[in-house]
Amino acid sequence: MAITEALCDEMRQLAALYPQSRSALLPMLHLVQSAEGEVSIDGINACAEVLGITSAEVTAVSTFYTMYKRKQVGKHHIGVCINTLCGLLGGDAVYAALSERLGVGHDQPSADGEFWLERIECQAACTHAPVMTVDWEFMDDVTPATAVDIVDRLARGEVVESTRGPIIRDFAATAHTLAFPNDGLADQGSSVDDKMLAGLMIAKERGMSAPSAPAPAAPTSQTEG
Ligand code: FES
């Protein structure tokens, strides 16, 4: 897919948001993924041109962060957290079931181009471990069976809702929201629930509080010798 002038306009809008235009590179790479389905060579060159930096610099950034893909992701990105808590509570089994269902391993697209499977790191959602993401929306407390069912429903084109509320769109749509988080969609759904607040509630009931932070150390004078 060619990089259109409309996409370059959106890139320039992002670049104009920052005192240093190159600070816009991360959202610009999400924008490229939303249009191209991957961080394509054309997208890299367009970012470099808009920001006045080299394609090598753009490539260096895009290959450092795992959210940027250099192959077609397909319609839906499926992430399975395999960090400590999720792994211990069943994340490894969830990943194995999805790997079998989709016929792919880590960081690979399915043969039909509909799904991309990835083992992901902690999503700061450990309260609801094991956690799976679909196009970066949370699916909390999944099991191997419910995870495969989510993929089956997406494959049938059914409407699927994140356990936190938002309707699953697709990878490209999420990538556009990541580029422009003020689109009114970024904070849909609930980000906190009773389970997440349980520790805080118990601490309040028991009158517990965190120890105050130590006072900063006084500056030491240095003698020259
Ligand atoms: S370990 Fe999976 S969300 Fe934290």
UniProtKB/TrEMBL annotation:
Keywords: 2Fe-2S, Iron, Iron-sulfur, Metal-binding. Signal peptide: none annotated. Its cofactor is [2Fe-2S] cluster. CDD domains: TRX_Fd_NuoE. InterPro entries: NuoE_dom, NuoE_N, Thioredoxin-like_sf. GO terms for molecular function: 2 iron, 2 sulfur cluster binding; metal ion binding; NADH dehydrogenase activity. It holds the Pfam family 2Fe-2S_thioredx. Belongs to the complex I 24 kDa subunit family. This is Unannotated protein. It comes from freshwater metagenome. The lineage of its organism: unclassified sequences, metagenomes, ecological metagenomes.
